[in-house]
Amino acid sequence: MGHPPEALPPTSTGDQKPSRPTVSVIVPAMNEAKNLPYVASRMPEGVDQIVFVDGNSADDTVAVAQKLWPQATFITQTRRGKGNALACGIAASTGDIIVTIDADGSTDPAEIPLFVEALVAGADLAKGSRFVGAGGSTDITTIRRIGNKGLNGLVNLIFKTEFTDLCYGYNAFWARHAVALELAPVEYQRAQWGDGFEIETVINVRLATCDLAITEVGSFEGPRLHGRSNLNAYSDGMRVLRTINQEWKHWRARPKSVAASVTSVSTTPVVTHTPV
Length: 276
What we know:
The protein is of the alpha/beta class. It has a single domain, classed as Spore Coat Polysaccharide Biosynthesis Protein SpsA, Chain A (Alpha-Beta Complex), CATH 3.90.550.10. It has an eight-stranded mixed sheet, sandwiched between helices. It has a two-stranded parallel ribbon with strand order 6-9. Strand 1, helix 1 and strand 2 form a beta-alpha-beta unit. Helix 5 runs parallel beside helix 7 and helix 6 packs parallel to helix 7. The protein starts with about 20 loop residues before the first strand and ends with a strand.
């Protein structure tokens, strides 16, 4: 898949100031033992922290991950769903930059330097897109492509954004902006809004409505290597549609103090594009 992994530059050289921000990569996984070796082989050298979030796997996912990344931060998610896994991962992250990828091999960790570069260049959110630059997909079906385009257009209309790929989970943002996501506390035991696959829409919309600078990074999506995807084009599409409605209500009710607390704001949610 694509070019070989390029190492991130070191964070410091001797007594000099750091040459780049520190990077935490969140890897949520449930029963992904067979896919993890490939993901690890594509991980760039120099990542400062890998946060491995186990979704109560029934196979040896955790054991495999511990062999691949012995220095990683290992946690078990507190509820169910990808959104809760990412919330747990964000809470455990220590880096200046937070990157979210998938553990099934569909998102290429070798692209992480591109996302970091976009943030260092001035973006607040680096949003992966399969539809800009050299981005693409060998996994998206015609039905999913049409559904994504429709939902994407609806979000752009309602929230005055310019996204090209709403439902893609490869994202990177400055950790200081995590407060703007307003995710449910991980300590809660009952299911919360944002715990499921709607998390990508929640992240994108909530950061955009804080008037942050957004750069889309061309990203290539590969197929799931092993196992069966939990995604369902119809049910998950309807969930995203419901999410758009919920986020519109949330946006209207959000106190201005939340947006004001986010640093490095721009006057509009500018979307630029960076190719692979």
